[in-house]
Amino acid sequence: MILEPSIDKLQTKINSKYTLVTLAAKRARQIQDTKMHQVETPRAATFVGLALEEILEEKLTVDPEYKMINE
């Protein structure tokens, strides 16, 4: 079973795997709560898949100045 979009394609958009996973998880929760996404013709059957498609289509990005702060 091949997962789409591939990690290689996604890493051309967001270089860090940690950031990619964190962003996709947070966005997937938002999609689940609101039932709204930004993909015109989604291929994914899951909320995480939809979030990854948004990242691949550059509808979801990370601010390059973003820094994690431990509280």
UniProtKB/TrEMBL annotation:
Indicate whether Ribosomal protein appears among the record's keywords: no
Among Pfam families, the record links this protein to: RNA_pol_Rpb6
Q: Which domain of life is it from?
A: Bacteria
What is the catalytic activity of this protein?
A: RNA(n) + a ribonucleoside 5'-triphosphate = RNA(n+1) + diphosphate
One of its GO biological process terms is: DNA-templated transcription
For this UniProt record, give its keywords in alphabetical order, as a comma-separated list.
Answer: DNA-directed RNA polymerase, Nucleotidyltransferase, Transcription, Transferase
Reported EC number(s) for this entry are: 2.7.7.6
What GO cellular-component annotations does this UniProt entry give?
DNA-directed RNA polymerase complex
Q: Which Gene3D superfamilies match?
A: 3.90.940.10
In the record, what terms sit under GO molecular function? DNA binding; DNA-directed RNA polymerase activity
Subunit comment for this entry? The RNAP catalytic core consists of 2 alpha, 1 beta, 1 beta' and 1 omega subunit. When a sigma factor is associated with the core the holoenzyme is formed, which can initiate transcription.
- HAMAP family in the record, alphabetically? RNApol_bact_RpoZ
The record's PANTHER family line, in alphabetical order, gives:
DNA-DIRECTED RNA POLYMERASE SUBUNIT OMEGA
What is the similarity comment for this entry?
Belongs to the RNA polymerase subunit omega family.
Tell me, what does this protein do in biology? Promotes RNA polymerase assembly. Latches the N- and C-terminal regions of the beta' subunit thereby facilitating its interaction with the beta and alpha subunits.
Listed name of the protein: DNA-directed RNA polymerase subunit omega
Record organism: Gracilibacillus thailandensis
